[in-house]
Write a structure and sequence with these properties.
The protein is α+β, with helices and mostly antiparallel strands and 130 residues long. It has helices at 19-32, 63-78, 101-115, 120-125; strands at 36-42, 45-51, 87-88, 92-98. The protein has a 4-stranded antiparallel beta sheet with strand order 1-2-4-3.
Length: 130
């Protein structure tokens, strides 16, 4: 498996459902020294996961990026699109209870782009409320 492109199209986000698939995707990210991002099936709902530890110490996201990601996840919690038990970073990110695989992939791709400094996909996927 090659590292994900940046920005990553949603359909390329790995499905890490199940222990074996999760470990494989995580190990691949670690071997390539890139940010881990994946979706997982949780019955009828989906989970989005991302972890910057796999990218090593040379990949810290700055405060602006972390603040934007945290705010987007909190908006998703507020609208009940994801569970209140979400992890909002700055190293590990997780959103449970996403209603569909398509939406989970969209959010994962947007999160991946944000963790590489491109906030535009995240702002489109989770617009700010006025």
């Amino acid at each position: 498996m090659q590292p994900l492109p940046v920005p990553c199209p949603a359909h390329l986000i790995p499905n890490a459902s199940g222990t074996k698939a999760f470990h494989q995707a995580y190990r691949q990210a670690m071997a390539h020294g890139v940010v881990f991002v994946a979706v997982e099936s949780d019955g009828p709902r989906w989970t989005v996961k991302a972890d910057t530890l796999t990218a090593g110490p040379g990949h810290p996201a700055d405060n602006t990026v972390n603040d934007a990601i945290r705010a987007a996840i909190l908006r998703l919690i507020h609208t009940r699109e994801v569970g209140a038990d979400a992890y909002t970073g700055p190293i590990y990110f997780m959103m449970h209870n996403v209603p569909s695989e398509e939406r989970a992939r969209e959010l994962a791709a947007a999160l991946h782009a944000a963790l590489h400094g491109n906030l535009e996909p995240l702002n489109r996927a989770v617009p700010q409320t006025s």
